[in-house]
Amino acid sequence: MLGPVILAASRSDRMRRFVSAAPGTKQVVARFIAGETVDQVIPIVQDAVDKGLEVTLDVVGEDITTREQAFAARDAYLELIEHLKELDLGTKAEMSIKLSMFGQALEDGHELALANVRPVVEAAAAIGTTVTLDAEDHTTLDSMFAIHEELRKDFPQTGCVIQAYLFRTEADARRLADSGSRVRLVKGAYKEPAEVAYQQKAETDKAYVRILKILMEGEGYPMIGSHDPRLISIAQELARKAGRKLDEYEFQMLYGIRSEEHLRLAAEGHRMRVYTAYGTDWYGYFMRRLAEKPANLLFFARSILTKG
């Protein structure tokens, strides 16, 4: 069970320093992180669009400790939107935002995060795109859902993420499906206690299917966040049974993982969106990618040994 160990390490400053200094880190990080700056990531967005794909962009960085850092995170997304506007990419690229990056954990964090995210959502809408609020650990979700509901009053296209491994998620899915929300369903990538989350992959997979069925049969727009071939097939079958057209749901996969599958689904006529992260504060995001799949960790270990 390496996953929980890696997730614990994602919060360790000592491990952050070790991983950052490891000789093979840069090579592996480049597999999952599209670049450090807007200028580096925009050509990758354009290339994806040229291949028939869509993109959601995440400026990585979650360990916000000051209001100034939260304002800087807001401004980074506003800068991104300006670049998308200049290149007329608004209809093909949306944004994913972690509210922790916008100051959610600080004093008066709920109000601060809402105040910071609103201008980003407004700017995104002005260029024809939208924002999806990422789910983080379970203690932050009530605040995230409340901000999502508030934003949807003026920007109903604002999306949110739900995590299959949490016990609460089936109820959240019913509420969101009834409200017609855009909802990305993922398995979950945070270390959660047994009191609130399934601890076994098989249980999480079963919950994923139950929740996906709720979303497909509901009034919203499901976004299937998974690389699992079995779950992708199940999603296609559930969509067919629910009478959904190909543009009434979409698949989402991470940049750097199963890239050929991205192209295959797009070629079949599916909406296929690539979750593309960039920025300098990559550590937490990178460690969760390692935790999700042992093969990623082995790839990292081999790189360290090869470069050492």
Automatic annotation (TrEMBL):
Catalyzed reaction equations: L-proline + a quinone = (S)-1-pyrroline-5-carboxylate + a quinol + H(+)
UniProt pathway: Amino-acid degradation; L-proline degradation into L-glutamate; L-glutamate from L-proline: step 1/2
Uppermost EC category: oxidoreductase
Keywords, in A-Z order: FAD, Flavoprotein, Nucleotide-binding, Oxidoreductase, Proline metabolism
Needed co-factor(s): FAD
Annotated Proline dehydrogenase domain residues: 46-299
SUPFAM superfamilies assigned: FAD-linked oxidoreductase (SSF51730)
UniProt-listed Enzyme Commission number(s): 1.5.5.2
PANTHER family in the cross-refs: PROLINE DEHYDROGENASE 1, MITOCHONDRIAL, PROLINE OXIDASE
Annotated protein name in UniProt: proline dehydrogenase
Species assigned in the record: Streptomyces lutosisoli
